[in-house]
Design goal:
Chain lengths: 421, 291
């Protein structure tokens, strides 16, 4: 599937033109240019922009257009449309319009590997945004690494996935272990938790890693006692019936729950937990961050703590402008239940911004005969990135290709995420 | 805790039992498996959710969702079974697999791929027995399921149409010679199967408060397993099979691990096929003649 996200500049957005909107949003652009003027901030930042060859700058997007994660991709598409319009409204990349070419991963690892192969070999894109999940990245990253094309995932956070596929695999996400180290002490202190029970998804890659390794290890390191060390409570992705698990947990004595799983499973679990009269607060990894978790019916997920690098109620003029425009566009899409952007939408947007900046200033020619060299230059630019001004703060990558960025701990309260700690 | 887990299993199993009976009806009459029953179940849940969210009271939303599912079932009969009635058995089976994928993708397009909250219909208090907490809605679901099964049993045993269904199940050609209008009977059978699957979908939403387009596949497969374990083509067997599958699933999650749940459930299926291929209440029959 190929999707062209060009749209002409000058259309009206809520009484102002698109160009005006992006000028307002362009505090980011101003900050970006400012950052570029400071040598050493980005490594490649002080270089000037070049005029590029060709009629379009082709960037790939390997995302689940179909399958169980299709709604994620529909939301991501909103962010990518906004970015394409913003860039093309301000003259494109070195005078050439950017075009994001989508390939469907089908929400599965094999599909993700095929999407990367097709984008690199048939569409000849310069770099790829995606794939989405750790399960997909584990299979698709080796493919792109062999071809020699940068892939940057926006949601994968299982430890070690990009490290195993150097030098072309990157993730604009933090390793879950680093996130947990920031979140767990705040959770324990604010909720006065000393004994925790571990519950985890036995199927999803990042959830399994969180539940069996990351959360228990960090919990022990911060002095929490695990009450079920020999037998964690398990479920599988997409489960609806948590009665068996919660009934078993009623036999244990604990005052907090470590949850290795995705936000939707956490909501289903919390519903059953509260129904059976258990009031213990929950904490987990970044997969819990979703605008809908705090809105769960009856406030069942209140006092759930999670680490993140962005949340939609985050303060700041630039974030507010982005969220407002995102929600306006998402409102027109009937199948999008959630209209607010989440951390992963913003991660994608920032990956796109970074690719474009590297292409502008990193010596990329965009000539067909230079494709291999251009891809290498993008990889080098990514490797050198240490403080790119993204929407949610400055970010870069460590030696393993994982994101380095500010971490926030938030908790679900009153229907929204609020900053904790 | 064991007793509480068994009760949990019975409630889960009652859901599988209803779906198993929806499969059994068509299996018993045509000797053919309509894989798309799982997706009719899923659509019943979404129809119910959409109606309740649109302000339709539950006592109207349930029958309307059932009728909607019944109509979908009729469409499946018209497009996937009737044109292929004289084809080898495998062909309509493959056709319904295709229909199943089509329906799931349609649901993805209309309602999205994420889980949606099924609205609560009444603030009924939970029943507390010692440490056991049983939601009243589960009794409502179990009671409704039992009532539907009894009504269906009476319908098949006591009414003219029911007798026609049994005649067609014996032999489609002979029943036609004896004055039964097979096309009408087949349509009624598919419609009733759709009604049951749709009701089960709404009950699923009520019980778990969350639904998604993927529930059809998972519950549908369990429904097939329940039908085979209980006895192919036997309604009472479907109930026993459903309860056994529900209890097995719950106990394996509670005492072993969720990742082994399907291992135990489908091991039960294989065990039934090896030890008693006709199922617990099934009887060995000659292959039925087909028109």
């Amino acid at each position: 599937m190929e999707r062209d996200v060009h749209e002409p500049a000058g259309e009206l957005i809520g009484g102002s033109t698109r160009r005006e909107f992006f000028q307002q949003l362009g505090i980011a652009g101003t900050g970006l240019v400012g950052a570029m003027a400071v040598p050493g901030v980005l490594g490649w930042g002080a270089r000037r922009a070049y005029a590029l060859a060709g009629s379009e700058v082709r960037l790939g997007v390997a995302q689940p257009v179909t399958g169980v994660f299709a709604t994620w991709a529909q939301k991501h598409a909103v962010a990518m449309e906004m970015l394409a319009e913003k860039v093309n409204a301000s003259g494109g990349v070195g005078g050439v319009p950017v075009k994001f070419i989508w390939e469907d991963t089908g929400s599965n690892p094999t599909g993700a590997a095929n999407a990367v192969r097709k984008l690199a070999s048939e569409h000849n894109v310069l770099a790829i945004v995606g794939p989405l999940s750790s399960s997909e990245c584990e299979v698709a990253f080796p493919v792109g690494n062999r071809i020699g094309i940068v892939m940057c995932a926006q949601a994968s956070s299982k430890p070690g996935v990009s490290k195993a596929n150097r030098p072309y695999a990157f993730r604009n996400t933090m390793d879950e272990a680093k996130l947990a180290k920031a979140c767990l002490p705040i959770f324990a202190k604010e909720m006065k938790v000393s004994k925790v029970a571990v519950v985890h998804d036995a199927k999803d890659a990042v959830s399994l890693s969180l539940g069996t390794m990351v959360l228990p290890t960090v919990a022990k390191a911060v002095g929490l006692q695990i009450v079920n060390p020999d037998k964690y409570v398990t479920f599988t992705t997409g489960d609806f019936d948590f009665k068996a698990q919660v009934t078993r947990m009623k036999q244990m004595e604990f005052d907090g729950i470590l949850f290795g799983g995705l936000y939707a499973d956490c909501v289903a679990f919390a519903k059953e937990l509260r129904r059976q009269g258990m009031k213990q607060p929950i904490t987990g990894g970044s997969p819990l961050i979703h605008p809908d978790l705090p809105k769960a019916e009856g406030g069942v997920a209140d006092n759930t703590y999670a680490p993140c690098t962005f949340w939609s109620d985050m303060p700041g003029a630039e974030v507010e402008a982005f969220v407002k425009e995102f929600e306006r566009r998402a409102a027109g899409k009937a199948t999008l239940k959630t209209k607010s952007p989440d951390m992963y939408d913003v991660n994608m947007y920032d990956i796109g911004q970074l690719f474009i900046q590297i292409i502008k200033t990193g010596g990329v020619t965009n000539k067909p005969e230079d494709l291999k060299a251009d891809r290498t230059k993008i990889m080098e630019g990514m490797t050198k990135t240490t403080a790119f001004p993204g929407l949610a703060g400055k970010f870069g990558f460590d030696k393993d290709g994982d994101g380095v960025k500010p971490i926030y701990t938030v908790k679900a309260q009153g229907g929204k995420w609020v900053k904790a700690g | 805790m064991f007793l509480e887990q068994v009760v949990n299993g019975i409630f889960l199993g009652s859901m599988y039992a209803l779906v198993a009976i929806a499969f059994t009806l068509i299996m018993g009459i045509f000797g053919m498996l309509n894989i798309a029953v799982g997706e009719v179940f899923m659509l019943g849940a979404f129809f119910g959710m959409s109606l309740i969210m649109a302000g339709v009271p539950f006592h109207f939303a349930l029958p309307l969702a059932m009728i909607g599912s019944g109509v979908v079932s009729l469409v499946i009969e018209r497009l996937s079974f009737r044109p292929l009635r004289h084809a080898p058995l495998l062909v309509p089976l493959l056709s319904t697999i295709g229909f199943s994928i089509l329906l799931q993708n349609l649901a993805n397009i209309v309602w999205g791929t994420e889980r949606l909250e099924f609205p609560g219909v009444a603030a009924l208090p939970d029943l507390k027995l010692g440490s056991m907490v049983i939601p009243s809605v589960q009794f409502l679901v179990l009671g409704s399921a039992v009532a539907l099964i009894l009504a269906l049993d009476l319908f098949i045993q006591r009414t003219r149409v029911g007798r026609g269904m049994r005649a067609v199940a014996e032999n489609l050609e002979t029943s036609s010679i004896l004055g039964v209008e097979p096309n009408g009977i087949i349509l009624v059978t598919f419609f009733v199967s759709g009604l049951l699957a749709g009701a089960s979908g709404v009950f699923f939403g009520l019980t778990f408060s969350l639904i998604a387009p993927t529930i059809g596949l998972e519950v549908g497969l369990k429904g097939i397993a329940a039908m085979v374990v209980g006895g192919l083509g036997n309604m009472r067997g479907g109930i026993i099979g459903g309860l056994l599958i529900g209890i097995t699933e719950t106990l394996s999650v509670a005492y072993i691990s969720a990742s082994y749940r399907d291992v135990f459930v489908y091991s039960l299926l294989f065990l039934a096929l090896i030890i008693r291929p006709e199922g617990i209440l099934g009887t060995v029959q000659q292959e039925k003649g087909r028109a």
